[in-house]
Amino acid sequence: MSPDSWPGILDRLEADIALAVSGGFPPPWEPPVDAGPLPAGLLPRARQVLEAQADALDMVAAMKHDAGTHLAALAAVSPAPGSSRPLLLDVRG
Questions:
Q1: pLDDT bracket for residue 70 (50, 70, 90)
Q2: Does the model's pTM come out above 0.90?
Q3: Cα–Cα nearest to 10, from 20, 35, 34, 25
């Protein structure tokens, strides 16, 4: 790879962020081993990607916290007596 590959690398990172925040699962990231140094002209874009990654991590952490809170609330509710048996039997079915 060469410094010319950096726009493609940043494109991939941006696409992965967009997929993750929309509920998808990006493919595993394999960092390029020979991309060379980041060209100075791409530094502002790289910073934006870094900030977007941090925002996405914050969003995922908040979603994880909310899901844990909801699961804890569900676990705190005691099942009604006899709830392991069906209440109705569909005989016409």
A1: very high
A2: no
A3: 35
